[in-house]
Design a protein that fits this description.
10 helices, mainly alpha, three-stranded antiparallel beta sheet, 226 residues, 3 strands
Length: 226
């Protein structure tokens, strides 16, 4: 049998993996050998070209989209109401109407627009700076619009500070609920098996079946194919 040379640090890491595998997959009697560890690492290795799966990226983009972002997309989709429904329902309606590819594209465009200053704000700033003052009295008087804007900003800040943690919690719960809903909607397309390394299998549209190691892998396969 061919031999390989490893460093002490690598040997320690291999031994830790061996113990983890033994605790996970060996119930009472049995032993995980070093060659079994190497085989496990080879079986679970993901080639670099498969690490950035477009289908997985689209799944994550849609599953983690916030409610305000979904609302901005829904505002341009006649079939989907922009209010009166929760985030999961809106997410599902947008996905059904636009499809994964188009919805992902619109989410990216919406997030990009939200991160840049709007043209209206830039134009307003230019117009304000270009207008000369009419007299000394008007220059010395406080701008009522600016005062009102300051109050609005203060109110908005206080409101955001009070509701921030709740909004974050709600967003996380919405993402989890949406992901679990995908498993429920396609419950006939996947199942749990007795295979230790890949305890789940998913039926594909072409009639074949593929193995999955985790429920997250199952969700990604369902999202990609159904």
């Amino acid at each position: 049998m061919p031999e390989i040379t490893v460093t002490e640090a690598q040997q320690t890491a291999i031994e830790e993996i061996r113990r983890d595998l033994e605790q996970t997959y060996i119930d009472t009697y049995g032993h995980i050998r070093t060659q079994d560890v190497i085989q496990y690492l080879l079986d679970t290795y993901t080639p670099p070209e498969r690490r950035h799966d477009p289908g997985k990226d689209a799944y994550e983009k849609i599953a983690t989209a916030t409610f305000p972002t979904l609302q901005r997309v829904a505002a341009e989709v006649e079939e989907v109401p922009g209010s009166g429904i929760d985030a999961d329902t809106m997410r599902g309606m947008l996905l059904s109407t636009l499809g994964p590819k188009e919805l992902t594209s619109r989410l990216e465009e919406t997030e990009s627009d939200a991160s840049d200053p709007s043209a209206d704000e830039v134009a307003t700033a230019d117009n304000t700076s270009a207008q000369p003052g009419t007299d000394s009295d008007s220059a010395s008087e406080p701008d009522s619009d600016a005062v009102e804007a300051g109050r609005s900003d203060t109110d908005s800040t206080e409101s955001t500070g009070e509701s921030g943690p709740t909004d974050a919690t709600t967003s996380t719960e919405s993402v989890l609920a949406s992901a679990n809903q995908l498993l429920n909607d396609h419950g006939d397309k996947w199942r749990q098996t007795t295979d230790g390394d890949s305890p789940y299998e998913v039926d594909l549209p072409d009639g074949t079946t593929t193995q999955a190691r985790t429920k997250d892998d199952v969700r990604q396969l369902l999202f990609k194919h159904y």
